[in-house]
Specification:
Elements: H1 2-24, E1 28-36, E2 51-54, E3 59-63, E4 76-84, E5 89-94, E6 97-106, E7 110-117, E8 120-128
Antiparallel strand pairs: 1-2, 1-8, 2-3, 3-4, 4-5, 5-6, 6-7, 7-8
Length: about 130
C-alpha cells in the first residue's frame, strides 16, 4: 500500500512539473514590479519594460525594452533555461550571465520569481503579456 501511495505521489509531481512548464512557456512575461520581502519596491525604471520568454526547447529571450539599465546590454538577449520542479529552481544562462531563481508562483496570468541580492530576498513579479 505504501508503494502505491509513493507511486501516485510521483505521478502528481510529474503532473505539477508539466503544468508549471506549460504555463512558463505559454507566452511572454512582462515584468511589472520587483519588491524586497519587506514589501518595498526595488525596481528600477529600466527594468519596467523587460519581457522574458521561455520556449519548450529550453531557449529563452530577455527583451530589455527601450530603457536600458546598462548600455552594453543588447536589446534582445538569448540563452537557455532549466527547471527543477522538486526544488522550484529556475536557472537562466543568457549571454554570459547566470540568473538563478526560485519559482514562487505561476498561474495562467502571473509569474513570481525569487532570488537573493546583496543578502536580501527579492521577488520579481511578471504578468503574461
Amino acid at each position: 500500500m505504501l508503494l502505491m501511495q509513493f507511486s501516485c505521489n510521483t505521478d502528481n509531481n510529474l503532473i505539477e512539473q508539466q503544468d508549471d512548464l506549460t504555463l512558463l512557456t505559454s507566452g511572454k512575461w512582462q515584468r511589472v514590479s520587483i519588491k524586497s520581502t519587506s514589501g518595498s519596491s526595488v525596481m528600477l525604471l529600466c527594468e519596467s519594460d523587460d519581457v522574458y520568454e521561455f520556449d519548450e526547447a529550453n531557449n529563452c529571450t530577455i527583451d530589455n525594452g527601450s530603457i536600458f539599465c546598462n548600455a552594453s546590454l543588447e536589446k534582445l538577449m538569448t540563452g537557455t533555461w532549466s527547471y527543477k520542479a522538486e526544488t522550484n529552481y529556475l536557472r537562466l544562462e543568457v549571454q554570459g550571465f547566470l540568473y538563478e531563481f526560485t519559482l514562487k508562483t505561476i498561474t495562467e496570468t502571473e509569474l513570481v520569481l525569487e532570488h537573493t541580492a546583496n543578502g536580501n530576498i527579492v521577488r520579481s513579479y511578471f504578468e503574461l503579456n
